[in-house]
UniProtKB/TrEMBL annotation:
Pfam families reported in the protein's UniProt record: Fn3-like, Glyco_hydro_3, Glyco_hydro_3_C
Stretches assigned to the Fibronectin type III-like domain: 624-693
Taxonomy of the source species: Bacteria, Bacillati, Chloroflexota, Anaerolineae, Anaerolineales
Keywords assigned: Glycosidase, Hydrolase, Signal
Enzyme class: hydrolase
Organism field: Bellilinea caldifistulae
Protein name in UniProt: beta-glucosidase
């Protein structure tokens, strides 16, 4: 199959004129009267279906299948009949909107995320989209950055597991299947390190940190067969990613063997001029193509300048041909030459199926993180009158989260209706958005559930915040309600970790629901009333105050680590040391005990088994996400205090125990060493089997 594709695309390349070659490297926004002329002349390799650079911050009308087929027909009327790729931001669902990616990562269940991506692929392809700009794989350590919502959090291991699962979900084992689409791993690389959490700002990342923290999810995507990558906006160590040959060619192609193509982010080639690294648009085009960017997203600089650059000898024909081959290769793998059109009847069958909605509901509940549950207030049992109050009581598309341009409010059962439909019938439920009225009625309620958080427009692209507290007025409302002395549950909808110490102090129970998607209301009812458990664990550290940021679990120790006694007991004189909640944290409706840690050997020779007994010591069925952490005690470069190396979800009946076994390989201990090479170093290692990154049973071994 591979050899036949290679022969086909090379034969096709040999027939192409220079103008047709350049056209394949142009992604066109077909929203003007010139579309028929451009497409019939073969001057576009792809059409992007987006309203503009900030499509993720609002509704973007999507071309339907008939429009996609009509545009494809125009392309097939070109001389060589090369089909188009139709690109669309299908980030966490198409019409069936799943929880935001950060929430999906909180599930610690890549298989569910894989299923969600497969649903998104089936729905998007039913309307003619065959290329998604997902998954976003940027490691994010600063929750002020709005786009933390779109990724998998702060950890490279969890990020890599999610990356591979999402690529498999979108592309399947055969990306040419009618219900699969080409994935795009973005934003390569270091975009999540933007200074101050300010989108588009530069980032300084050492090469060991780049390779050991920021690149593993992208490498996992490449190993999973991802078809395309997107270059990042970020100025990385003085070289914008879109002009960074070290990233795009030396590492991506040279070290990892990637043979798909790289697309720029929105006008990021043109923006090399603003970065101050290119003199003009022609110079920007030269830098980007030479670095390894194969397709220009909408700026038109390749279309307008590549021919002259070749004529002047500033680019070689070999560079151009290689970029064209990469684009043609992915089109061939996507099956577009054999099946360029979409069956118009598919949308009727494949959009918003009951199975897709059920999966969205399951994933939303599995993503919700229980942060506090004083005296076992949750699940809500034995209550007759419950007041629901706050800004989200009638929420519909507010549940979607950022980057859901194809979600429709009409598809969502309003939160109050969904909760009422899934609550015990004997419970009287009141849903009051008005704060004054809610405070008045609370006196008659037996418990209060406050629905707090941030609107989706407050997270996502260029939606950064300088203050991680809840939006204005919500803490005051919480304080007023808490003063009444009623049992109080706080549910928080958000696209990022927020600073919530007052919420934790005042509420009896706190559930972090993220932006849970189309079935968020039903999933919330499932969790609140005990139909299912809150299954999430934090994929990112929660700070006590905005001033702690950046804060993350896999930090370095320093020469003066904080200790409970001694001279260095704190890092801030006005805050306790450490986070409000650590990476990996999450409560359930039962309790678990960890015991009897055993290692198969005191030395790791190839592989080592680490195991412990996990016991459900509570009164109800529950699941625990058991996590494996390692610390390399001495290295040629300083090493993190802990690194996640594995996790397993175990389901246990009350009183049931199970041995959980992890196998640790030598490869998992490798890192970028002082001489720049990648490998392991002999020495002492600590290991934990733990419920989160600040606890657990500890052992040690030598390599």
């Amino acid at each position: 199959m591979t050899s036949s594709i290679e022969n086909f695309i090379r034969d096709l390349l040999a027939q192409m004129t220079l103008e047709e070659k350049i056209g394949q490297l142009n992604q066109y926004q077909a929203r003007d009267d010139n579309a028929p002329q451009v497409l019939r002349a073969g001057l576009a390799g792809s059409v992007i279906n987006a309203a503009g650079a900030l499509t993720g911050q609002g509704f973007s009308a999507s071309a339907n299948v008939e429009q996609h087929n009509a545009l494809q027909q125009m392309a097939l009327e070109s001389r060589l009949k090369i089909p188009l790729l139709f690109g669309r931001d299908v980030i966490h669902g198409y019409r069936t909107i799943f929880p935001i990616p950060l929430a999906q990562a909180a599930s610690f269940e890549p298989s569910l995320a894989e299923q969600a991506a497969a649903v998104a692929a089936r729905e998007a392809t039913a309307e003619g989209v065959n290329w998604t700009f997902a998954p976003m794989l940027d490691i994010a350590r600063d929750p002020r950055w709005g786009r933390i919502a779109e990724g998998n959090g702060e950890d490279p291991y969890l990020g890599a597991q999610m990356a591979a699962a999402l690529v498999r979900g979108y592309q399947g084992s055969d990306p040419s299947a009618p219900d699969r689409l080409i994935a795009c791993a973005k934003h390569y690389a270091g975009y999540g390190a933007a200074e101050g959490g300010r989108d588009y700002d530069g980032g300084e990342i050492s090469d060991p940190t780049l390779r050991d923290v920021y690149l593993p999810p992208f490498q996992a995507a490449v190993r999973a067969g991802v078809g395309t990558l997107m270059s990042a906006f970020v100025d990385l160590n003085g070289m914008p990613a879109t002009a960074n040959r070290y990233l795009l060619t030396d590492i991506l192609r040279g070290e990892w063997g990637f043979d798909g193509f790289v697309v720029s982010d929105w006008k990021s080639i043109q923006e090399l001029v603003d970065h101050g690294i290119a003199e003009d648009e022609a110079d920007a085009a030269r830098l980007a193509l030479h670095a390894g960017v194969d397709m220009d997203m909408v700026s038109g600089v390749y279309l307008h300048h590549l021919a002259r650059l070749l004529d002047e000898g500033r680019l070689t024909l070999a560079e151009l041909d290689e970029a064209v081959l990469r684009v043609l290769r992915i089109k061939a793998r996507a099956g577009l030459f054999e099946r360029p059109f979409t069956d118009p009847q598919r949308a009727v069958r494949d959009l918003l199926t009951p199975q897709a909605r059920q999966l969205a509901r399951q994933l939303a509940a599995r993503s919700m993180v229980l942060l506090k549950n004083h005296a076992g207030l949750l699940p809500l049992h034995g209550l007759r009158r419950i007041l629901f109050a706050g800004d989200f009581v009638h929420a519909r598309d507010e549940l979607f989260g950022t980057w859901s341009p194809d979600g429709r409010a009409a598809d969502v059962t309003p939160l109050d209706e969904a909760v009422r439909a899934n609550a015990p019938k004997e419970v009287d439920l009141w849903f009051i958005p008005n704060r004054d009225l809610a405070l008045a009625l609370a006196h008659q309620a037996e418990a209060v559930v406050l629905l707090l958080g941030e609107h989706p427009s407050r997270s996502g692209e260029n939606a950064n915040v300088s203050d991680l507290n809840l939006p204005p007025g919500q803490i005051q409302f919480l304080e007023s309600m808490a003063a009444l002395g009623k049992p109080l549950v706080a549910v928080i909808f958000a696209g990022r970790p927020l600073v919530i110490p007052r919420v934790i102090a005042l509420a009896d129970a706190v559930l972090y629901a993220w932006h849970p998607g189309i079935e968020g209301g039903a999933a919330l009812a499932d969790v609140l009333f005990g139909h299912t458990e809150p299954g999430g664990r934090l994929p990112v550290t929660f700070p006590r105050a905005t001033g702690q940021v950046p804060i993350y679990y896999n930090r370095k120790n320093s020469g003066r680590p904080v200790t409970e006694d001694g001279e260095f007991r704190y890092r801030y004189i006005d805050l306790p040391d450490g986070p409000l909640f650590p990476f990996g944290f999450g409560l359930t409706y039962t309790q678990f005990e960890y015991s009897d840690l055993r290692l198969s050997s005191p030395r790791l020779n190839g592989k080592l088994e680490i195991q412990a007994t996990i016991t459900n010591t509570g009164r109800c069925v529950g699941s625990e996400v058991v996590q494996l952490y390692v610390r390399d005690r001495v290295g040629s470069l300083t090493r993190p205090v802990r690194e996640l190396k594995g996790f397993q979800r175990v389901h246990l009946q009350p009183g049931e125990s199970r041995r959980v076994v992890f196998t640790l390989s030598e490869e998992q201990l490798a890192f970028t060493r002082a001489d720049g090479s990648y490998g392991v170093e002999a020495g002492l290692f600590q290991v934990w089997i733990a419920p989160h990154s600040q606890a657990g049973l500890q052992g040690e071994f030598r390599l």
